[in-house]
Design brief:
With 116 residues, the protein is mainly beta. The chain has strands at 3-7, 10-13, 18-25, 33-39, 46-51, 58-60, 68-73, 78-83, 92-100, 103-106, 110-115. The model has no long low-confidence stretch (mean pLDDT 97).
Length: 116
């Protein structure tokens, strides 16, 4: 059974950090490209960051560059998103996604709320 379980969301003050985790099971994590996406109320879901299967390649949306860091631990089947200098506009539901050869799995999401 495929599972992606996000955790680490919550309420944080503007300028503060949060670290999200996504623990996966039910598929071969180490061969999947992992990514974080977010969706704010009334807006479309957008890519935050992605990381290749080995962890050597990463990609970030422009608004997150320099503030967010994606990483993965293939021994723990977990992908992380370290978020620093959070802004109120980062408030959203954050989802992790696994993708490989046209197959994709999504987690249920974790809410991040940044207060001003």
């Amino acid at each position: 059974q495929v599972q992606l379980v996000e955790s680490g969301g919550g309420l944080v003050q503007s300028g503060g950090p949060l670290r999200l985790s996504c623990a996966v099971s039910g598929f071969t994590f180490r061969i999947y490209i992992m990514s974080w996406h977010r969706q704010a109320p009334g807006k479309e879901r957008e890519l935050v960051a992605s990381i290749g299967s080995t962890g050597r390649s990463t990609n970030y949306s422009d608004s997150m560059k320099g503030r967010f860091t994606i990483s993965r631990d293939n021994d723990k089947n977990t992908v992380y998103l370290q978020m620093n200098s959070l802004k109120p506009e980062d408030t959203a539901m954050y989802y992790c996604k696994a993708a490989n050869r046209g197959q994709a799995y999504w987690g249920q999401g974790t809410q991040v709320t940044v207060s001003s």
